[in-house]
């Protein structure tokens, strides 16, 4: 039987691995829509992981700066390319 949310405890690595797998599985299905959707999903995953690891993070720019070598404007350009 699966653990309930109250009983479950996962490491950051486990959460990141599960999210990465979910992104990969989704991209296997929607890749014909373009590479941009993959970029946006990975940004979402990486920013979410930063917020999980650093709940007091100031903002999106801080999270992007912690996860990417590129500046926040460049990374957000990847996300904006999805529309």
Sheet-strand content, in percent, reads: under 5%
Distance between the termini: 41 Å
User: Can you count the beta strands?
Assistant: 0
H/E series: HHHH
Main sheet record: none
Helical stretch tally: 4
Shape: flat
Rg result: 14 Å
Helix/strand-derived category reads mainly alpha
Helix content: 55-70%
Give the integer mean of the pLDDT values. 88
Unreliable residue stretches: none
List its traits.
83 residues, mainly alpha
Structure description:
The chain is mainly alpha-helical and 83 residues long. The protein has a domain at 36-83. The chain is 66% helix and 0% strand. The protein has four helices and no strands. It has helices at residues 12-30, 35-53, 60-67, 72-80. Helix 1 (12-30) packs antiparallel against helix 2 (35-53), helix 2 crosses helix 3 (60-67) and helix 2 crosses helix 4. The radius of gyration is 14 Å and the shape is flat. It starts with 11 loop residues before the first helix and ends with a helix. The model has no long low-confidence stretch (mean pLDDT 88).
């Amino acid at each position: 039987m699966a653990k309930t949310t109250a009983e479950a405890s996962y490491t950051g690595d486990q959460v990141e691995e599960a999210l990465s797998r979910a992104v990969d599985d989704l991209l296997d299905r929607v890749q014909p829509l373009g590479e941009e959707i993959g970029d946006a999903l990975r940004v979402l995953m990486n920013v979410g992981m930063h917020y999980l690891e650093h709940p007091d993070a100031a903002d999106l720019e801080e999270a992007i700066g912690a996860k990417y070598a590129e500046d926040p404007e460049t990374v957000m350009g990847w996300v904006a390319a999805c529309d």
